[in-house]
Design goal:
Its main location: nucleus. Among the domains are: 182 residues, no CATH class; 104 residues, Ncd80 complex, Ncd80 subunit (Actin-binding Protein, T-fimbrin, domain 1), CATH 1.10.418.30; 69 residues. Helices cover 65% and strands 1% of the residues. The protein is extended. The relative contact order is 0.04.
Length: 748
């Protein structure tokens, strides 16, 4: 596998890099870290240039990450020689292909350092590493490799059983094992216990969260408090339940809030584990199974990261030739890796070609030794036809078998029923024969009785037929009467409804005047459908027939309604009609008068409206004048506010400078006091040491004196003894000499 340098090249000519930088394009798959920003040496560390790209970005991905270059692969591997490598990584010194031309490289000479720039110098270090870069703190935004997605309305519910004790224990144990196996205590210098993830402190949570996020983004530097750092980080990581976490909860993670934060830490651990597995290439096999080869992408990524790292090490005045020499080993290493990858594919291709040749030889040998394929195909088709015919025949026979089995079962049931009927008929015949024998009837009597029975049966059938015809006619009349009764009931309902609408019903209504105009039917309220079904007893029943007043008489039309409609009700309604017509005429006259009054009011309103329009015109003119004066006042206010703000900034700056001076003097005073105390302690210690030395010297002198005195006394005794033995006569003289010597020693 190799790169086709004719399609894509990382080489950026001097004249092309300027235009690409102006277009803000990044042709590399690597996002630009903040530590790689070029800065001019004249700026120093106090006033760094803040550009649109001057934010912390992660190396892994970003929200505005460009498309990866499409590296075409081939099996030749010849495109990665020394010349091709040098041409593919040439960069321009005069401009930066990642940012605008106003951003320069940093100088090796350190700028003027002061107490004000100490905190900012950490975020403006020289480009030393891509992976261990510092983060640019302050008001600059945090960009990470996770893209931002539109937020969902509302707070999503966490489906995990975070309140379950067993679930908390399980994920807490997993998190503790992960922290232990990855040297959390050694890196953070913070010890963990078995109860750390059950009842943690705020410090435990802060250390665990920082360590887990550094596993995801190693170059990030925490510069604010945790309640200010955690929400944007969770939002960038697209934690699904970050809306349910507030700053007040982050400031107190223990108690009832701990299950939520334990689930969040477990999610961060799983994300870190996934990234570790990705970096270790555990997903490469899955990509290979899907037909995507990522080995070439990994080789290119390693080349770009290592080459980019060395490119960052170059000085500001480094020329293109030195840069190309610096990148030659990386190009050669990438070419060797592609060659090694190609060797594997070449070997695999050779083995496949050998296997293909062997299979082709086997096919040719089998074709030579095999019989005529046309005859075999014909015989095979014949066998297939026979097989299909036998299958059809078997299906047909199986259907017939099922049909005959069903028929046999049916015939067996019929035979059993016939045998039972025959046995019952035999028993009945025997019983009839016995009864006939007991009565003593002859055959003629039986024939006569049968003839009479048939005649009576025919008469009964004729009577039943006539009764059915009569019953049908009665039912038709009854249905017609029922329909008429239902129509009458509907008319009564309409009448009563109109009476309610016209205030005639009930008797206490306005137009009723104490009369009862509510209409009702005087009929039975029993079920009509059951009145004509059954025998004569049902048809003459007063309880089951609504159409009959008594068992044999219907209702008279005058008795069917409770009111005299043609007499009293009609005359009263006509009188009410006349009264309503008179009231209607009076209402029409009143309406005409009111319409005239309304027209007069409309004319007056039109006049008032014209006056209002004139006043509105004056009001608009006054509002325009007010807006003009307001704009002038606002402009003057903004200018004064700007002046006030400027003066406040200067005052704050002076206060800050004064505070720093006071703090510096207090620090010097503290240092002087500490130094004075240290000198006092040293003087006391030196005095004690000198006293000890003097005492030791005096003791040595005294011991030496005692030793000399004892030696002289011994010597004196020895001399006296010797003199007494040798010079007995000179004893007096020797004694005087000895006494003189003793006196001299005592004087010493």
């Amino acid at each position: 596998m190799s790169q086709d340098t004719g399609l894509f090249s990382i080489r950026r000519p001097r004249e092309l890099s300027q235009s690409m930088a102006m277009g803000s394009q990044n042709y590399s798959a690597l996002p630009q870290p903040s530590s790689a920003l070029k800065r001019t040496s004249s700026i120093g560390y106090q006033n760094p240039p803040f550009t649109s790209q001057h934010t912390r970005m992660s190396l892994l991905n970003s929200a505005s990450r460009p498309q990866q270059p499409n590296f075409q692969r081939s099996s030749s591997g010849g495109g990665f020689g020394a010349d091709a490598g040098l041409s593919s990584v040439r960069r321009s010194v005069s401009s930066n292909m990642f940012h605008g031309p106003s951003v320069g490289r940093p100088s090796f000479a350190p700028g003027p350092m002061s107490s004000q720039s100490t905190a900012g110098s950490q975020g403006l270090q020289r480009r030393s590493s891509v992976f261990s870069r510092p983060s640019v703190g302050g008001a600059m935004g945090h960009h990470s490799f996770f893209t931002q997605v539109p937020s969902v309305a509302g707070v999503p519910r966490d489906p995990r059983p975070l309140r379950d004790r067993s679930f908390q224990a399980r994920i807490g144990q997993e998190l503790l094992e992960y922290l232990t196996h990855n040297n959390f205590e050694l890196e953070m210098k913070h010890s963990l216990g078995q109860n750390t993830l059950r009842s943690p402190t705020q410090k435990d949570f802060n250390y665990i969260f920082q360590w887990l996020y550094h596993r995801i983004d190693p170059g990030y530097k925490f510069q604010k408090s945790m309640d200010a750092e955690v929400p944007p980080i969770l939002k960038q990581l697209r934690y699904p339940y970050e809306k349910g976490i507030t700053k007040s909860q982050i400031a107190a993670v223990g108690g009832q809030n701990w299950p939520t934060f334990l689930g969040m830490l477990h999610w961060l651990m799983q994300l870190a584990q996934m990234m570790d597995r990705y970096l270790l290439g555990e997903y490469d096999e899955a990509c290979a199974e899907m037909g995507v080869d990522v080995s070439g992408d990994r080789i290119i990524f390693r080349f770009l990261t290592s080459a980019y790292h060395d490119w960052l090490q170059g000085g500001e005045d480094e020329d293109d030739a030195t840069a190309e020499k610096r990148l030659v080993p990386h190009v050669e290493m990438m070419a060797q890796e592609f060659e090694r990858g190609n060797e594997k594919y070449v070997q695999e291709m050779e083995s496949l070609e050998a296997e293909n040749r062997a299979l082709r030889d086997q096919i040719e040998e089998m074709e030579k030794n095999a019989p005529d394929m046309a005859k075999l195909d014909k015989h095979f088709r014949i066998l297939e036809d026979d097989k299909r015919k036998f299958e059809d025949y078997n299906q047909n026979v199986q259907g017939k078998i099922e049909k005959y089995e069903t028929r046999i079962k049916f015939l067996d049931d019929e035979l059993k029923k016939t045998e039972d009927d025959l046995q019952a008929a035999e028993e009945e015949r025997a019983g009839l024969q016995a009864s006939v024998d007991q009565q003593g009837l002859t055959i003629q009597d039986i024939d006569r009785m049968n003839t009479e029975r048939e005649r009576l049966q025919r008469n009964l059938d004729d009577t039943v037929n006539r009764l059915e015809e009569t019953h049908a006619r009665v039912m038709a009349k009854e249905a017609e009467a029922s329909r008429k009764l239902e129509d009458l009931e509907e008319i009564v309902k309409v009448y009563n409804t109109l009476g309610y609408q016209n205030s005639l019903i009930p008797s206490s209504a306005v137009n009723a005047k104490g009369e009862d105009y509510e209409l009702s039917l005087n009929v039975n309220e029993s079920n009509f459908s059951a009145s004509q079904v059954g025998g004569l007893a049902n048809r003459i029943s007063t309880d089951g027939d609504r159409l009959l007043a008594d068992p044999f008489t219907g209702y008279h039309p005058a008795h069917l309604l409770n009111l005299d409609l043609r007499g009293i009700v009609r005359s009263n309604l006509q009188a009410l009609r006349k009264e309503i017509n008179e009231r209607r005429k009076r209402a029409i006259d009143d309406d005409l008068e009111r319409r005239n009054l309304l027209d007069n009011i409309k004319e007056a309103m039109d006049e008032k409206r014209s006056e209002v329009e004139a006043l509105e015109h004056k009001a608009r003119a006054a509002e325009e004048e007010f807006e003009r004066l307001k704009e002038v006042t606002t402009t003057q206010k903004l200018a004064s506010d700007a002046q006030i703000e400027k003066m406040e900034k200067e005052l704050a700056k002076m206060r800050a400078t004064l505070g720093e001076s006071v703090q510096l003097m207090e620090q010097r005073e503290m240092n002087t006091n500490i130094e004075y105390e240290q000198l006092t302690l040293r003087a006391n210690a030196l005095r004690e040491e000198l006293h000890t030395n003097v005492e030791s010297m005096l003791n040595d002198v005294i011991r030496f004196k005692v030793h000399v005195q004892k030696g002289l006394e011994d010597y004196e005794s020895f001399v006296v003894d010797e003199v007494e033995q040798e010079l007995g006569g000179d004893m007096q003289y020797a004694d005087e000499d000895v006494e003189m010597g003793v006196d001299e020693e005592e004087e010493l």
